[in-house]
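So, can you check these tokens?
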Amino acid sequence: GARIKSLRYKRKLAKLERNRRHADEVMKRVDAILDKINEVGLENLTAEERRFLEDASSELSDRNQKSSRNH
């Protein structure tokens, strides 16, 4: 009973922590790419940097839609 709930809670906390760390890493990379855009312009991004920004934008958009449905 209580032990199972405790294990579920710990797993949920661990998952939330992994998600938070992932989001922090994504935002650091996004910030670095945005700094590059400010320095050298959007046209000087690599294809990989553009793809990363698009993916990060989609991920954030998906996360926001899920969050707004839950509230």
Observations:
- The chain has a mean pLDDT of 91.
- The helical segments are 2-40, 47-70.
- The two ends are 29 Å apart (CA to CA).
- The chain has two helices and no strands.
